[in-house]
Known about the structure:
Layout: H1 4-20, E1 23-28, H2 34-46, E2 50-53, H3 56-64, E3 79-84, H4 87-100, E4 105-111, E5 114-116, H5 118-125, H6 130-169
Antiparallel strand pairs: 1-3, 1-4, 2-3, 4-5
Helix pairs in contact: 1-3, 4-5
Amino acid sequence: MMSKAAKKNYVEEMKKTFTDNESVMIAQYQGLNVTELDALRKELRDKGILFKITKNRITKLALKETPKKDLEKYFTGPTAAAISSDPISSAKILTKFSKENNKLKIIAGFMDGKVLNENEVSVIATLPSLEEARAKIVGILATPAQKLVSILLAPGSKIANLARAKSLKN
């Protein structure tokens, strides 16, 4: 059992965690065994996402004084929070895991100052991640440059081919 001082410190730590991160995805994990939870935690941790299973009462106290206070009502039963600065990765990993294992149920999320329902979290999971979006943008920007180079080099190569053909005739 935690002492009052330890609880107070824990609430302050959680408050800071909720305030410092852009997104929170909430899921109920009833029925998951330790091995399954560890696998989920590892996958989230690899992407820099904190997966917290806490006492609901303490979590509600921590949320009260943060911009995410509207999430309080979702902390009932065996609840966990995936907390990060990348809502898309959180949503993707949790959605993928919940499809593979129906014991994990996404119930809500928070992103850009707005509470998200289960369906909105699923929609966010379909968006490209930051790395994927950057790769697409680089690809889009690189394509015109390649075309420009080939257009600029085309007249020179045509002249070289013509000169070669002329020299072969002689």
